């Protein structure tokens, strides 16, 4: 007997990966943000994301529209992380028979709003009874333009670690909700994240960007996934990361360290990527002319050691992992 | 406040359908077995099916391999019901942290076995924690050959109602499990149904077959879906349905009526379809030369009244409906 709590989410994924068969039409299987498959001689992205009451969300903290929005965004963000464009999504919903129909309709409004904003469309799904708790599984089907997509693999020693947006707001928003503090901007960041679809597509078209991931489990942990664990190390220089003024003010008020939220908070749905150092200035300059989304270099990959270091100090695997 | 228990699964689906937007690329949206979407100028099928512990399965009744097999078959059968070919599937799994890893691996073995037998491949998914109970959501992506697929719509007055296979075995198997009776053939039918992929593809290519559905909720209820509720009626003649010898023997032994299982039992995953009467003999003859799966005519559509009648008697909506 080996409980999941002992091997953790990543241990389980490794074991599942051994069971799943490969096939010539499966370009990328389990282990990345999306599966990449060949259909009609084109590449498609497939991804699903299960959103569970009292694990991923609390009904007391958020409206059903917020919960639906975030469930959809979490799945759409996986397509953004590959540089793909989401086309269609499906929603499977399990909820107790005592649930108010208006509540479920609210969930669907949030789901369709977020999906529509990302340029995709909810085409159907399944509804079923749950003995306890609401379970929302969102599947997204996306396309890859010109067969170019970014996986988590591809970083080399000397490459720089880039990241979009401002980190930590979502986690600080959750802290505010947990502790009954008033922080509307942070709570909004927690409830209504944006999948970086256009930014991901742009970065995947930039020839100097080599690999990418979305930050769902925390910057340190997700940056670690870009090291092809065991092959490279990545040094994060936290001083290079700008602290959002709202986050700074909030942390001052409650004597918190903004870096805790920024480095291990999770649910930012920003993009982290490896980029060739020579071309970084050009690429970031063009990105900034194209988007209002911030973009920064926050670290460097190395072959001298393995894992993730923050300001020179090795980290234990931080961030969120299911079953632990 | 309108509890889901009051409006039922079909009431909820109607309300959700009003929320989901349409689009030119969405050929069939919510309300059929699969969504039909246009991708790269071809038609694709998308379907998902949530399988919930203590709603769809009990851990005490079945091995994890059985449970995984059936969760996959249930989703694959939706593609069969449209006459499509499944290509890829994704699995989202939520389970408690105390679950044995070997149990989860068993689920995946069942999932990949059933998917492989249907000619498709599991390419990835999501694993997450559940506060209570195991939730398995299977999404299937399928293709349609030659843009011909069968929806639930299309029956006309005078068309005949056809059905594949022998009905009622799965429901009788569940009764045996619920009542601690020994009935290995029936229990096997309950645990290891087969999605009628090849049969569905063949029937969709038969120009005289007009509409199709898979029997997941019971023959009466699913045949009712072929009447485009409110437009037609369908008369089921139960005497024309052969009773499986194992089912007959079992029902004799325990003083049960085999027709109860055959008409409202559900989870047969056989195919029911509307067919033009003139060409029925030819079509069934060819089908029988092609497949060992039985096929029969079991009723007739009419415009004289609405709903489903069995041997002349109107039925109340039988079969399984979530939230009721």
Could you give the topology of this structure?
Two copies of one chain form a homodimer.
Chain A: H1 4-19, E1 26-28, E2 35-39, E3 42-52, H2 64-80, E4 85-95, H3 101-117, E5 121-129, E6 135-143, E7 160-164, H4 169-178, H5 184-191, H6 197-205, E8 209-214, H7 219-225, E9 233-236, H8 245-254, H9 258-264, E10 271-275, H10 280-290, E11 295-302, E12 307-310, E13 313-314
Parallel strand pairs in A: 4-5, 9-12
Antiparallel strand pairs in A: 1-2, 2-3, 3-6, 4-6, 7-10, 7-11, 8-10, 9-11, 12-13
Walk me through the structure.
The structure is a homodimer of 324-residue chains. The first copy, chain A, is α+β, with helices and mostly antiparallel strands and 324 residues long. Chain A folds into 2 domains: 32-147, PurM-like, N-terminal domain (60s Ribosomal Protein L30, Chain: A), CATH 3.30.1330; 160-314, Phosphoribosyl-aminoimidazole Synthetase, Chain A, domain 2, CATH 3.90.650.10. Chain A has 10 helices and 13 strands. The first copy, chain A, has a 7-stranded mixed β-sheet, with helices on both faces. In chain A, helix 2 packs parallel to helix 3, helix 2 (64-80) packs parallel to helix 6 (197-205) and helix 4 (169-178) crosses helix 5 (184-191). The interface between A and B is large, with 81 and 81 residues.
């Amino acid at each position: 007997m080996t409980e999941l709590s002992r091997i953790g989410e990543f241990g389980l994924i490794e074991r599942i990966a051994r069971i799943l068969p490969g096939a010539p039409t499966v370009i990328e299987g389990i282990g990345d943000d999306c599966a990449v498959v060949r259909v009609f001689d084109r590449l498609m992205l497939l991804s699903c994301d299960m959103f569970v009451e009292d694990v991923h969300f609390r009904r007391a903290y958020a409206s059903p529209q917020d919960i639906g929005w975030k469930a959809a965004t979490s799945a759409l963000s996986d397509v953004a992380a590959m540089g793909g464009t989401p086309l269609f999504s499906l929603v499977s919903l399990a909820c107790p028979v005592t649930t108010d129909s208006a509540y479920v309709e609210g969930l669907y409004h949030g789901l369709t709003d977020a999906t529509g904003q990302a340029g995709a469309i909810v085409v159907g799904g399944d509804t079923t009874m749950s003995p306890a708790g609401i379970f929302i599984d969102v599947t997204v089907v996306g396309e890859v333009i010109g067969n170019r997509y970014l996986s988590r693999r591809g970083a080399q020693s000397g490459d720089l670690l880039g990241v979009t947006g401002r980190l930590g707001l979502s986690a600080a928003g959750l802290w505010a909700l947990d502790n009954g503090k008033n922080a509307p901007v942070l709570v909004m960041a927690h409830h209504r994240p944006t999948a970086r679809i256009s930014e991901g597509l742009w970065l995947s078209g930039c020839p100097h960007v080599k690999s990418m991931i979305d930050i769902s489990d925390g910057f340190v942990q997700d940056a670690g996934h870009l090291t092809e664990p065991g092959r490279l190390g990545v040094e994060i220089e936290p001083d290079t990361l700008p602290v959002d003024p709202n986050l700074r003010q909030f942390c001052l008020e409650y004597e918190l360290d903004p870096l805790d939220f920024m480095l291990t908070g999770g649910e930012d749905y920003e993009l982290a990527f490896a980029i060739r150092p020579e071309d970084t200035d050009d690429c970031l300059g063009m990105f900034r002319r194209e988007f209002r989304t911030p973009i920064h270099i926050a670290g460097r990959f190395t072959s001298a050691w393995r894992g993730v270091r923050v300001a020179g100090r090795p980290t234990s695997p931080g961030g969120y992992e299911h079953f632990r």
